[in-house]
Structures are given as C-alpha cells and as structure tokens.
C-alpha cells in the first residue's frame, strides 16, 4: 500500500460514497465512517440514496428525507431517500413513477441539492446496491433530458416536488442541468470526492467489486479504500470443520484482494462479529475497526 494515499478523514473531502453488493455491510460502514468523521469535522451529513435504506435501524432512530440530528451528537445529521415520488394528483404521475431509472433520478436530486446547499463539511452517502449505484453515477447529459421528453413542461410540473418548492417550471431544466454539472465536477475531483467499496471475502462480492472499481475508473471517480467485512479469524474455527472450510475459502479471496488492490488501496479487514451493528455504541465499536482508512491519531 502506498503511504501517499489520502486518508478518509482528509479535510479536503466533501463527499464520501460507500457502495458494494447488497448485504455486505454498506450501511454499517457508512454509519461508522460518519461517526468517525464527526470527531474531526464540524458538520457531517449521512445520506442514504437507497430506497430500502436501514440507517434508521442502525442508529435505532427514525429518519426522514430531511436532515435530522443523530441522537447523542451535536454535529452529525442523517436523512433517508424518499421511498417514492409523491403523488400530487397529476394525470402523468403513473407514467413518471414507472419510468426506468426514476429511483436513481430521485436519489440524484438529493445529491444535487447537497451540492447546491453545501451546508456540511462532509457528506457520507450510503448508496444502493452496485447496479443501482452505477446507474446513479452515470450522470445524464443535457441532451439525454432533451431527447427523452422527461422535461417537457407537463412533466416538469409533475416532478416539481423532487427539486423543492422554490423552482419555477420554466427554470427547472436549466437549474437541474446546472446542478448536475456541479455534481459531476465534484464527483470527478479526487481532492473532494472518494468512493469506499465494501465487500465480503467471497467470489460474488469480489466480482462485483472488480466491476465497480472498473466503472469508477471509467467515470473518473477516485477510489482507494476497501472494507472487507465478516472476515473469519483462525481461532474462531478451530473446533468447527465447516467453519474451518469457510475460513480457508475466505483466505483464498483475501489473497486475491491483496494481489489485486494491496498496492493501490487502503484495506480495512473487519472480523466477523458476535453482535449486530445496531445502536450508537455498536457503531462506534465498528468504526474503530476502520482505523486503517483513517489518519493516525
């Protein structure tokens, strides 16, 4: 691993995105990163762009689509993606809600609004599983919206709730494309944005991580941190032949991960825990295991 790689708590970062295959521990990781950053930054926001978000379950607190202060903190806020676009009675609502990619578009508006407001020192994004996130990060071009018909006047009126109450219909197209350009600039600025990939030491999660990292490189989005979750320790499996076989299988993939990414990534290996990562104290304990990604105290 290069000693020149920046740490996640670098003061220049404005966005830290956390992603990977479903079920690998993205939410635990993003919540833990947010808590770790709250020790050093004045205002931290955790956003879920996953419609099936469970950051509320992790913190054991109800969150909405507006920033809410996390219990026990004075400088950490969290918010979840709206599950659906609000039905405002428009006759085109059904057409809009069934559009391919509308969930990703819904998540994008949160991304854009955070660029627009910039009220926080750093924003941590708990993203949806890999495929959705790849679509989310393929920011549409201005010509896409022009050619798709999505932003004709009637459609603009129907989705006005996504961009907030202060947008006139006639202004939405230019407003959105301007926000999108700002988002693209930040996403591709390695000083301001980085992507943390979370995986398990298994075939499918590693395969999806390879796809994701290749995609990030193609999109010019910086990534240099891996979190390998649920790693079996040798002392855990001594009395269990089945567990020992799983341990040996994991060791093979851990070797593959080191060979593929050991030189260019900071890697945090999280042992399989005997507790759920649920509640502030459990999240704090998990965050301590992310030390390889954070600068030395």
Automatic annotation (TrEMBL):
Domain ArsA/GET3 Anion-transporting ATPase-like span(s) in chain numbering: 14-81, 92-290
A single cellular component GO annotation: GET complex
This protein's record includes keyword Nucleotide-binding: yes
InterPro entries given in the database record: ArsA/GET3_ATPase-like, ATPase_ArsA/GET3, P-loop_NTPase
Superkingdom of the organism of origin: Eukaryota
Entry-linked Pfam families: ArsA_ATPase
UniProt GO MF annotations: ATP binding; ATP hydrolysis activity
Entry's Gene Ontology BP terms: tail-anchored membrane protein insertion into ER membrane
Keyword annotations: ATP-binding, Cytoplasm, Endoplasmic reticulum, Hydrolase, Nucleotide-binding, Transport
Entry keyword annotation includes Transcription regulation: no
Family: Belongs to the arsA ATPase family.
Classification via PANTHER family: ARSENICAL PUMP-DRIVING ATPASE ARSENITE-TRANSLOCATING ATPASE, ATPASE GET3
UniProt protein name: ArsA/GET3 Anion-transporting ATPase-like domain-containing protein
Provenance organism: Trichomonas vaginalis (strain ATCC PRA-98 / G3)
């Amino acid at each position: 691993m290069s000693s020149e790689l920046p740490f996640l708590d670098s003061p220049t970062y404005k966005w830290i995105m956390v992603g990977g295959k479903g079920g690998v521990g993205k939410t635990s990781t993003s919540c833990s990163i947010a808590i770790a950053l709250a020790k050093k930054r004045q205002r931290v926001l955790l956003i879920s762009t996953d419609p099936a978000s469970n950051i509320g379950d992790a913190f054991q607190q109800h969150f909405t689509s507006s920033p809410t202060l996390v219990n026990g903190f004075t400088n950490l806020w969290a918010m979840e993606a709206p599950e659906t676009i609000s039905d405002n009675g428009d006759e085109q609502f059904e057409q809009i809600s069934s559009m391919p990619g509308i969930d990703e578009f819904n998540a994008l508006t949160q991304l854009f609004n955070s660029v627009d407001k910039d009220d926080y020192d750093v924003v941590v994004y708990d993203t949806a599983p890999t495929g959705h996130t790849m679509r989310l990060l393929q920011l549409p071009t201005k010509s896409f919206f022009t050619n798709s018909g999505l932003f004709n006047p009637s459609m603009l009126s129907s989705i006005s709730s996504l961009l907030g109450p202060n947008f006139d219909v006639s202004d939405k197209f230019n407003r959105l494309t301007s926000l999108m350009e700002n988002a693209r600039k930040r996403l591709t600025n390695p000083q301001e944005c980085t992507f943390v990939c979370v995986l398990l030491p298994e075939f499918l999660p590693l395969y999806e991580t390879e796809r994701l990292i290749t995609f990030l490189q193609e999109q010019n989005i910086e990534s240099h941190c891996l979190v390998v979750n649920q790693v079996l320790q040798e002392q855990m499996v001594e009395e269990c032949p089945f567990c020992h076989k799983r341990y040996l299988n994991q060791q093979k993939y851990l070797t593959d991960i080191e060979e593929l990414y050991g030189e260019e990534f900071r890697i945090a290996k999280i042992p399989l825990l005997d507790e759920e990562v649920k509640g502030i104290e459990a999240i704090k304990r998990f965050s301590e295991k992310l030390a390889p990604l954070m600068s030395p105290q």
